[in-house]
Design goal:
Helix content is 90%, strand content 0%.
Amino acid sequence: MNQQIFVELRLSGAGFVTGLWLMAVYDVLRVLRIFVPHCPAAVGAEDVCYWIYAGLTAFSLVYRGNDGTVRAYIIAAAAAGMAIYDRLLSRRLLKLLQKLKKSVRIKRKKRKKLVDK
């Protein structure tokens, strides 16, 4: 095979891993929001910081890997990585954490009632 094909495949793989990474970082923000209440301004500030980070990460990938030439397959690979992470890991993790938060609240309320009596 042509050496250029291997370079393109490596770049696609890097885009896929970048998509996984970006979703994992955003999940950290979501988990933080589940357990620590945020005002809308703080959520907005976190999101702006995340999107600046995501943009710089994507730009860095394209710049280092392809000298700044945007290729559709790099973007598609990153989007595929994000979608797969979201479907396979993120949704299950967030549902589990929501249930955990709910059960902790219920236990706290029960303990508070016992202490009040």
